[in-house]
């Protein structure tokens, strides 16, 4: 197999994997409905009455006619809202809080046990460029937007319990008004930034054999191995593909919520909301790991994204194949 | 204390929309918003049924449960009211409400929502009863004057009944006993658990 054929194959596999993940993200939240509709059946419908059909229609949210115009004014009862309420206030809020605090606890424990992953060789004083100025701008813009969106989003889910006792009702209301506005306005901006990232770094994030070994060695986080990696290591690629799947689903579901002017029905909005909240939880949990490894978790990692340059010793330890590539390029610059 | 409920007798409702109009006029409801609406099932087909629906003032109200700023409260009469000064217009109560009761004035581009408006069972809001501020935000407070909701009061066929849930239920039951058939107190299974 030629190199380019292998490349297209890899591309195909990655694309398929991404599609499947996106599909799963879209479909899985719906299983909640199965659970709720099984456990929350309304009292049995009396079948003998000739009017039973009319009433069943009414209960099932079939559409009638109403002289009052407006969104879904012709629907008498909409059942999805109760399911949404139960899922959002119940398992999602509960497990979401557990997930995020669990990740924080694990990271703290990991830091206490393992400590910072140090450089194995002293700094050489020579540096190589890892991220250009524009790449760094792109990263920090997206990161800032992500954090703002995460904080404002979490405020809408947990603020009622966590912030009202602190700020009082009017205080929290004022804050929530701002949070809602910020979230709605910055969301689409984040989407643009994310898509630039996904397009820009797509090729370099296709998984290769090297990454399998990287994962087997836990990326050098646990144990003393130093698995090989190109410009992006296995972990960074996993983060990339999480963003490319869950992140994309997050963005599109966000658009459904952000623009009610298109009159999308409540059921669509509710499903979008569930997708939005689940993917957001996943990304927030992952981002905590990303932030940890990029800052206090690894000596010398942050400077790559702040100054743009990393020490050769760091590059050799964490991204050996990438360093080799750079050296080769230096020796025989392309034409 | 009475537990206030609405009941619409589908055998009587003739879809005249007087309740909708009465409500709009009594409370000076803003343009584009209707706190009550009449829905006809099988419109134009023999056996069509109409039901007038607004906020049902649910037990353990879904709107109240999902509101991120917790601006709803249930009065001693079982009426579900909200505080417009606190509401942020997020739309969540509309998603959760089984009856599609919450309505929003459009405020700003892309369908951005203003503060939520819904049926108050003619009981106003948190402000002082029938103060200018209360009337301005929520409409008249008839309950405070010892009157029942206007929509039901002026229903031409007395299809729509409002008031103490027990009395409403008795009234309806006696009607059904006289005319035969089955008591379909529409929406009650969804709205009320007390
Ligand atoms: S009908 Fe809707 S708005 Fe009224 S109390 Fe029930 S859930 Fe809330
Ligand atoms: S629109 Fe207002 S009342 Fe309704 S859930 Fe949002 S903040 Fe609460």
From TrEMBL, chain A:
Residues 130-308 form the Cytochrome b561 bacterial/Ni-hydrogenase domain. It holds the Pfam family Ni_hydr_CYTB. GO terms for biological process: anaerobic respiration; formate oxidation; respiratory electron transport chain. GO terms for cellular component: formate dehydrogenase complex; plasma membrane. One of its GO terms (molecular function) is metal ion binding. It is found in: Cell membrane. Keywords: Cell membrane, Electron transport, Heme, Iron, Membrane, Metal-binding, Transmembrane, Transmembrane helix, Transport. The chain crosses the membrane at residues 15-36, 92-113, 140-161, 181-199, 238-257, 269-293. It comes from the Bacteria. It is a multi-pass membrane protein. Its cofactor is heme. InterPro entries: Cyt_b561_bac/Ni-Hgenase, Di-haem_cyt_TM, FDH_cytochrome_b556_subunit, Formate_DH_gsu. Belongs to the formate dehydrogenase gamma subunit family. NCBIfam families: formate-DH-gamm (TIGR01583). This is Formate dehydrogenase, cytochrome b556(Fdo) subunit. The gene is fdoI.
Automatic annotation (TrEMBL), chain B:
This is Formate dehydrogenase iron-sulfur subunit. Gene3D superfamilies: 3.30.70.20. InterPro entries: 4Fe4S_Fe-S-bd, 4Fe4S_Fe_S_CS, ET_IronSulfur_Cluster-Binding. The gene is fdhB1. PANTHER family: PROTEIN NRFC, PROTEIN NRFC HOMOLOG. Pfam families: Fer4_11. Keywords: 4Fe-4S, Iron, Iron-sulfur, Metal-binding. Residues 4-34, 78-107 form the 4Fe-4S ferredoxin-type domain. Signal peptide: none annotated. It comes from the Bacteria. It comes from Methylophaga muralis. One of its GO terms (molecular function) is metal ion binding.
């Amino acid at each position: 197999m030629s190199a380019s054929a292998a490349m297209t194959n890899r591309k195909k596999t990655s694309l398929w994997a991404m599609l499947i993940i996106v599909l799963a993200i879209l479909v899985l939240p719906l299983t909640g409905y199965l659970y709720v509709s099984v456990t929350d059946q309304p009292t049995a419908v009396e079948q003998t009455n000739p009017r039973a059909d009319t009433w069943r229609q009414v209960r099932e949210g079939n559409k009638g006619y109403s002289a009052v115009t407006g969104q879904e004014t012709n629907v008498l009862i909409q059942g999805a809202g109760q399911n949404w309420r139960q899922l959002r206030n119940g398992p999602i809020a509960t497990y979401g809080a557990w997930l995020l605090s669990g990740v924080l606890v694990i990271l703290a424990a990991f830091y206490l046990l393992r400590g910072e992953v140090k450089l194995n060789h002293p700094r050489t004083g020579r540096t190589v460029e890892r991220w250009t100025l524009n790449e760094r701008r792109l990263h920090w813009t997206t990161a800032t937007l992500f954090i703002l969106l995460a904080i404002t989003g979490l405020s809408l889910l947990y603020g009622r319990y966590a912030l009202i006792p602190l700020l009082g009702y009017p205080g929290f209301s004022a804050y929530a008004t701002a949070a809602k506005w910020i979230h709605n306005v910055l969301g689409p901006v984040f989407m643009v930034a994310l898509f630039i990232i996904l397009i820009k770094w797509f090729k370099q994030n296709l998984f290769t054999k090297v990454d399998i070994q990287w994962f087997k060695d836990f990326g050098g986080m646990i144990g003393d191995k130093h698995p090989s990696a190109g410009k992006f290591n296995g972990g960074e690629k996993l983060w990339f593909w999480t963003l490319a799947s869950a992140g994309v689903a997050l963005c599109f579901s966000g658009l459904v919520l952000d623009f009610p002017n298109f009159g999308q029905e409540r059921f669509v909005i509710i499903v979008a909301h569930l997708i939005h909240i689940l993917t957001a939880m996943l990304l927030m949990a992952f981002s905590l790991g990303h932030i940890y490894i990029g800052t206090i978790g690894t000596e010398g990692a942050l400077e790559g994204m702040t100054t743009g340059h990393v020490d050769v010793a760091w590059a050799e330890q964490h991204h050996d194949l990438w360093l080799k590539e750079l050296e080769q390029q230096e020796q025989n610059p392309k034409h | 204390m009475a537990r206030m409920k609405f009941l619409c007798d589908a055998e009587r409702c003739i879809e005249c929309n007087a309740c909708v109009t009465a409500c709009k006029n009594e409370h000076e409801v803003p343009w584009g918003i209707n706190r009550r609406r009449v829905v006809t099932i099988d419109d134009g087909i023999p056996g069509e049924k109409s039901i007038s629906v607004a906020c049902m003032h649910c037990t353990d109200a879904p709107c109240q449960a999902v509101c991120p700023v917790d601006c709803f409260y249930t009065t001693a009469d079982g009426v579900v009211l909200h505080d417009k000064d606190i509401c942020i217009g997020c739309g969540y109560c509309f998603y959760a409400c089984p009856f599609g009761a919450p309505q929003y004035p459009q405020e700003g581009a892309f369908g951005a929502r203003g503060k939520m408006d819904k049926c108050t069972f003619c009981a106003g809001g948190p402000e002082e009863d029938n103060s200018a501020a209360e009337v301005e935000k929520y409409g008249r407070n008839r309950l405070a004057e010892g009157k029942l909701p206007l929509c039901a009061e002026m229903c031409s066929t007395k299809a729509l009944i409002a008031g103490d849930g027990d009395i409403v239920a008795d009234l309806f039951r006696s009607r059904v006993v006289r005319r035969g058939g089955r008591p379909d107190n529409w929406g009650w299974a969804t709205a009320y658990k007390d």
